[in-house]
């Protein structure tokens, strides 16, 4: 048999075949819809990176905007991939003890070149995330119904404004930083040890975060209302 002739007739015969590259299976976890808690954890990482100087204000603003637009977990991961804890997001401990009442999903208030207001007769959740970018957010708790003793508000203001108003007969505490901006919480301690406690944490960059009691506004049936909501 003429091997040369046979090989020329079938060029592919006798040659090693290249394996066909198979597509890498997509990570099923990346397709999971992002929860509010997932977005909160990612925002906490960005907040720490800004405080450490790893991100400047403009980069932080761009990434925060992407966080609150993300629909899946896979869209959140690249936002913090180049940061120290980007591959294993963790929640920073709160400045005050959150306690059992702060568990559960947070309410998100976002104002980007716009305004957002929460006031009137409404039930306050245990946690609220307020983010303002060239916008204004007003949170008025003077007529709100507290379903738990502790309410935590995490406020971020970048070239914007976040204002929190509370009744005079509850406790108000806070911890935060202003970077070329203002972060001010007027500390208030209620006479009633069972009164609601509102904690405002966060920071402002070229912006304003302010929390203080509203003069003349009080919860009239404070003790009875707490006993009813807390089941005492």
TrEMBL record:
Domain DUF1707: 32-84
Biased composition (Low complexity): 21-34
Domain Cell wall-active antibiotics response LiaF-like C-terminal intervals: 118-189
Basic and acidic residues composition-biased segments: 1-13
One Pfam family here: LiaF-like_C
Residue span of region Disordered: 1-38
Lineage: superkingdom: Bacteria
Alphabetical list of PANTHER family matching this protein: DUF1707 DOMAIN-CONTAINING PROTEIN, MEMBRANE PROTEIN-RELATED
Protein name (record): DUF1707 and DUF2154 domain-containing protein
Source organism per UniProt: Streptomyces tirandamycinicus
Biological classification of the source: Bacteria, Bacillati, Actinomycetota, Actinomycetes, Kitasatosporales
């Amino acid at each position: 048999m003429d091997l040369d002739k046979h090989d020329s007739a079938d060029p592919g015969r006798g040659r090693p075949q290249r394996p066909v590259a198979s597509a890498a299976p997509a990570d099923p976890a990346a397709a999971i819809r992002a929860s509010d808690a997932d977005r909160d954890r990612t925002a906490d990482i960005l907040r720490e990176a800004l405080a450490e100087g790893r991100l400047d204000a403009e980069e932080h603003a761009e990434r925060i905007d992407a966080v609150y637009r993300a629909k899946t977990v896979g869209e959140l991961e690249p936002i913090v991939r180049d940061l120290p804890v980007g591959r294993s997001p963790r929640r920073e401990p709160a400045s005050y003890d959150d306690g059992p009442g702060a568990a559960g999903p947070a309410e998100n208030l976002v104002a980007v070149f716009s305004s957002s207001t929460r006031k009137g007769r409404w039930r306050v959740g245990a946690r609220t995330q307020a983010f303002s970018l060239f916008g204004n957010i007003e949170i008025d708790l003077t007529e709100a119904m507290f379903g738990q003793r502790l309410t935590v508000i995490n406020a971020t203001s970048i070239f914007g404004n976040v204002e929190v108003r509370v009744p005079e007969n509850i406790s108000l505490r806070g911890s935060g930083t202003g970077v070329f901006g203002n972060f001010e919480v007027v500390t208030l301690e209620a006479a009633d040890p069972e009164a609601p406690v509102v904690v405002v944490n966060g920071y402002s960059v070229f912006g304003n975060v302010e929390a203080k009691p509203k003069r003349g506004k009080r919860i009239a049936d404070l003790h009875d209302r707490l006993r009813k909501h807390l089941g005492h």
